[in-house]
Amino acid sequence: MLWVSLLLFAFLLLLPSRVRVQGRVTARREETFPGRPGTARLALELMAPVPVYYRVECAGVAALGLLPRQYLGFGMGRVRLVEELTLSPRRRGAHALPRVRVFVRDVFGVWEREVPTAVIQGQVRVYPRVYPVPRPDLALTLLAEGPEVRGVGLEDPTQFRGVRPYAPGDPVRHVHWRATARAGTLMVREFGRVRATGIWVHLDTSGTGAVYLDHAAELAASLLVRANEERLLVALSAPGGMVPLARGDEAVRRALGVLAELEAEAAPRPVPIPPPGVNLVILTQHAPVAVVDGALKARSRAARVHLIALPEGFYLRPGERGRPLFGKPDAVLRLLKKRAVLEQEGVFVHLLRGDDALARLSG
């Protein structure tokens, strides 16, 4: 019977190599922002013809705040493993969910080997951080297709809404004299307000590094989200894609997707010339000649052009504190020399130094 025992031993020793594994790693929310917790689901199915010990290794993903971990078990036949993974996204980008490796060991614990796996890995797209940011002054244009808004906007004389008591700052031409006589107090006409202008953000990433890319992406995302909250048209041109002028959350979502994967370029790309009435905002670090010239050309059609330069490649995020910076890089000196001329031509220059907060944009 010795040969039978040896055959059984060989059978139990070698057959674990026939184990097959399939499954998937998926995120419950495939689009998110840094610092927003989330979860992913690891679902595996092992097909083991003989009893085996198994060890599942789940790699870590630093950008998603996921640490390496492993799961141990024993089973035979069809074995299912389902685990929840906690995600804490840290950096923008399209990040693959963790790679999974499976190892099996025979019941005698003699030989451990890795088995083939057919595990589908999902991904999580992490958008840039978004801050409450003051937008640069925009030139508002009155167009028939503009949506009606409350508060700030341009009055549409075709949309008469009624009369109301006078408030300081109301134009004298809006005084409704008949209503004033009836009420015994000053009354004014009230009209609907529309906001039909747009904001087009263009990013220059030529010769830049990771720090500038992150800060520029966050500033661009914040400006677009703010514009969308005000029901403005939004557009984006940057390495990795262009989002044409549109209004609504879907346009912003597409723009955030481009900004999530923003990368540097060797040379500046042409500055777009937006449709008439649209405001152009250009983000740059070194303000190369091609970008400055492009801003001047765009001004021929754009309602207003804002050139925002980040000489050090960063600014103070909300809550950050920095040390005063002394001296000016060559790019800043060149831009300051041209500032007066540029602003005479309708190109407004903003310098966000490394010790400046985003509130500087309101100036």
Q: Note the main sheet.
A: 6 strands, mixed
Amino-to-carboxy terminus distance: 93 Å
At CATH level 2, the architecture of the largest domain is: 3-Layer(aba) Sandwich
What fraction of the residues are assigned to beta strands by DSSP?
35-45%
Low-confidence stretches: 2-15, 142-152
Description of the molecule:
With 363 residues, this protein is of the alpha/beta class. It has three domains: 125 residues, Immunoglobulins (Immunoglobulin-like, Sandwich), CATH 2.60.40.10; 45 residues, no CATH class; 165 residues, 3-Layer(aba) Sandwich (Rossmann fold), CATH 3.40.50. It contains six helices and 18 strands. The strands form four sheets. Strands 1, 3, 4, 6, 7 and 8 form a six-stranded mixed β-sheet that branches. Strands 15-14-13-16-17-18 form a six-stranded mixed β-sheet, with helices on both faces. A three-stranded mixed β-sheet has the order 2-9-5. A hairpin with a 6-residue loop joins β6 and β7. α3 runs antiparallel to α4. The relative contact order is 0.11. The N terminus is likely disordered.
